[in-house]
Specification:
Number of helices: 1
Oligomer: single chain
Strand content: over 45%
Shape: elongated
């Protein structure tokens, strides 16, 4: 699934099922949801499915900017980042990685990290949309 758009209400941290976006002079003016609610554009953060990493088997997701602790440690905080990075002078690769706070030391993000992470920042839990089958689209 690509280019799925989500919204997060900045006041509550709740997911918004975006149905319409009004843009004025390249700025999001307002966002409407599936229930007919209208939100001011500056009250909503828009996120696509490319902005977070979801692991279905563990029902966990990480977004760029999330701050976490690993292995139940409360002394070293890490920030989730995405982009080109290099660890220990190895060739640069593109993907998700962790940057220590405040030192900025880079560390690769591994699947096993999902088993031992604790969120520092408040987390919005996204509900992934249901995929329509060919039969569903023929009946609609």
């Amino acid at each position: 699934m690509k280019n799925v758009l989500y919204g997060v209400d900045e006041n509550t941290g709740a997911q918004i099922d975006v149905t319409d976006i009004a843009v004025l002079n390249t700025v999001v003016a307002q966002v409407s949801d599936a229930d007919g609610n209208i939100y001011p554009g500056d009250q909503v953060t828009l996120i696509t499915d490319r902005d977070f990493l979801y692991v279905p088997d563990l029902d966990q997701s990480l977004s760029v900017g999330d701050q976490i602790y690993l292995d139940n440690q409360s002394h070293q905080r890490w920030e989730v980042k995405k982009g080109w990075y290099s660890v220990d002078d190895n060739p640069a690769i593109y993907g998700y990685y962790l940057s220590s706070i405040p030192a900025g030391k880079t560390r690769s993000l591994f699947l096993k990290d999902f088993n031992s992470l604790t969120f520092v920042t408040p987390k919005t839990q996204f509900t992934l949309p249901t995929l329509l089958t060919e039969e569903d689209t023929d009946n609609g």
